[in-house]
Amino acid sequence: MSSTEGEGTPAAGFIDRARDALQALRPRATPDTIGDDETGILSMLGELGASLLDSSLATSDVEDTLNTLAAQYGRADLRVFVLPTIVLVEDPSTSPAQTAIFAAGQYALRLDQAGEVERLVRHARERTTPPAEVVASLSTIRAMRPRFGSVLTVTGYMLLTVGFGMVLNPTVTALPVYVVLGVIVGSIMLVGNRVATLSLILPVLTAFSVTLLISLLVRPWVHDDVLRLVAPSLVSLLPGLTLTIAAVELTSGQVMAGASRLVYGIARLGLLAFGVYAGITVAGEPPAPTSAPTQLGAWAPWVGIALVSVGYYLYSVAPRRSLLWILYALVVAYSAQLLGNLLVGPELSGLIGALVVIPAIMLAGRVKGSPSTSVMLTCAYWLLVPGAMGFIGLSEAAAGTAGASGTILRTFGSLTAIAIGMVLGAGLSRDVSAIGREWRQTRTRGRTDG
């Protein structure tokens, strides 16, 4: 089903007009003035760097990519400096030295856009595409309209909520709650992300609203913890991916970038925890369950992973024919975490998960017809990162629950373990690829000499 179905209905036309009207409230990117850039290489590197940052890549990876491209285009002398919201490219060959500044982080790219950006980088590296063509292609990618309409986008968020809820192995009565909360929060996100003023208070407002709804109307009939009911519906607001990238950057020596992301992620968690605390304060402390809730069972997380893959495909507008590859990445990530749990315990299971999933996805990216590795990695990171655990820990601390500090410490320990696993996995993939490339080149030279 595509978003073009039913375009003739008055309701669909009204939704499309309202969506286009709300675009006026979104912040608009202003073109960067960089002076006389005759070759366009500075513009190309800066625009590519900003797009890669908006694709949720770590600054260390973006910097490596830009330096590789600069060398490919014969400008290894260019100096590149990348922060989470800015890219600087300096040309020391001019007098005085010319510095181009490019803003990033104004809004995140969808999965289909992130995949196109990675494909564009790969083509530029292989074919040395003219810089002006690269910049024009980036403008086209950023202007791409989503394939799915509002209804499918909210449906995708609902499936994400139910899927992540099932990964937590909830009770049967929690499932309809996840459905309702997914529709409510998905609708809020659809509007809030297009209104700059509302987006500033979106974490607090959303967390407060769903907590109040759960505490007053749902909790008396659903025998499950309030935070376990609330956390899956806030999946798009949880900064788990941000915190993990921050840990990777700190581990890679990117102190300024990692520290700024870490502060932002903690602040985001604090806003969400405050919203939950305010909701519980207004509604009153929910009564403790009289009996232990009966959970679905060990099969629930696997069904949840399938739902999460479909939810990602719809909500994040993944590239066409990428659904099975997203499911592959999620299954590998979750299976590796289960293996890590058996080998080293739950706190370090993320290390094994990241160490296994990155080479597995890099290998899958070589298969013809597979989407870009950034698409699969982004989805896998969301399953690896313990953003929900940190959110629950901070919410419990705000409410004065015993054992909250232990949850917070375990969260940051898991983040560190995942970051180390990601660094090791990425390094292992690069080393194996370099060895294989050199092996092929040696064989080619041997045949030529013979």
UniProtKB/TrEMBL annotation:
Family: Belongs to the ThrE exporter (TC 2.A.79) family.
GO molecular function terms noted in the UniProt entry: transmembrane transporter activity
Segments traversing the membrane: 148-168, 174-191, 198-218, 230-250, 262-284, 296-315, 322-342, 348-367, 379-402, 408-428
Organism of derivation: Agromyces atrinae
A Pfam family it matches: ThrE
Keyword Iron in record: no
The keyword Ubl conjugation is annotated on this UniProt entry: no
InterPro entries: ThrE-like_N, ThrE/Ser_Exporter
Lineage of source species: Bacteria, Bacillati, Actinomycetota, Actinomycetes, Micrococcales
Record's protein name: Threonine/serine exporter family protein
Threonine/serine exporter-like N-terminal domain sequence ranges: 45-282
Keywords: Membrane, Transmembrane, Transmembrane helix
